[in-house]
Amino acid sequence: MYTVGLDADTRAYFTAATSAISFNKSLSVNTPLLFLKKIFLYKNYSSHINFDDMNLTLWNKPLGLSSINKKSRISIIERDMLKLTPRVRSIIVGLILSDGWMQKTGHWNPRFGIKQSIKNFPYIWYLYNELAYLCSGDMYNGKSKLRGKIFYNLSFQSRQLACLIEIYNLFYHKIDGKWVKTIKYDLLFYIDYIVLANWIQGEGNKHRKALVINTQSFNLKEVILLINILIIKFDIKPRLQNDRGKYRIYINRKDLNKIKDQIYPYFVNHFLYKINN
After folding, report:
1. Same fold for the domain at 8-171 and the one at 183-269?
2. pLDDT tens by residue, 227-250
3. At CA 33, angle to CA 30 and CA 38, rounded to 5?
4. Which fold has domain 183-269?
C-alpha cells in the first residue's frame, strides 16, 4: 500500500482499511462496509453494531442509496426520483467553486465529478459518503506525471441526473461554442457556510494566521463578484490579491475568526489546519 509522504492521520485511515482497499483497481461495492468495520474496531467502539446488516444506509438519502448499500443500475423512474438535499446541494456548489466539475453532452443530463490527491483521502472519502447515492460506481484510483514525478489520486463521478441541471445552469455558460465554468450573480442565493467550508477545503491555503482562497481560474470581474458575495453573505471584508496576473481572495485573521465557528462543523480533521490559527 502506497503511504509515502502521507501525514499521520491519513496513514491511520489507510492502516485501518488495509484489508478493505486495493489501489490497483476500483474500490469494491463492499469496501465501505469493511472500511467502517475496521474503523470501528480500530477506534475501540462498541461492538453492538451488526455489520452483517446490508440495509444500513446513510440518513436523508433518497431510495436508501448510499456508499454502503447502493445500486449500480436503477430504473428511469428511480433516477428521476433522485433529488439534492439542501446539504448535498451546498456541498456540490462548494466543490464546483474549487476542484469539482460538471459535464453535459447534447440532450443528456449533466453529471458531476471530483478528483483529489490520494494524500487527501479523508476528505474525498467524506465526499463520497455524502454523494455516493448519486453515483452508480465506486471511487477510482489514478495517477498523473508532472515534471517527472508520479502523483496518485482518487476520483468519482455521479450519474447523469436531472437534479443536477439547476447547478449546471448556475455555473456553466456557452462562450465561443464551448461550455465554461463562470461565476454568476445568482450564486448569491446559493452560497452558505457549507458551500464556503468545501470551497476553502478545496482551494484555501493558510497564510500565516489568515487565509487565501485560490480563484486564479476565474477572471478579474468574477473574482470581484465573489468578493462582493462574501461581503454580503458573511459580513466580512475580503481583499483582492494579484498573483502574477491572476487574482485570488485574501481573508484576514479577524474575518477568518468571525466565520470559523460556522464553517468548522463542515470540515474534515485533515483540513482543519487551513482555518486554525
Report:
1. yes
2. 999 999 999 999 999 998 999 999
3. 120
4. Endonuclease I-creI (3.10.28)
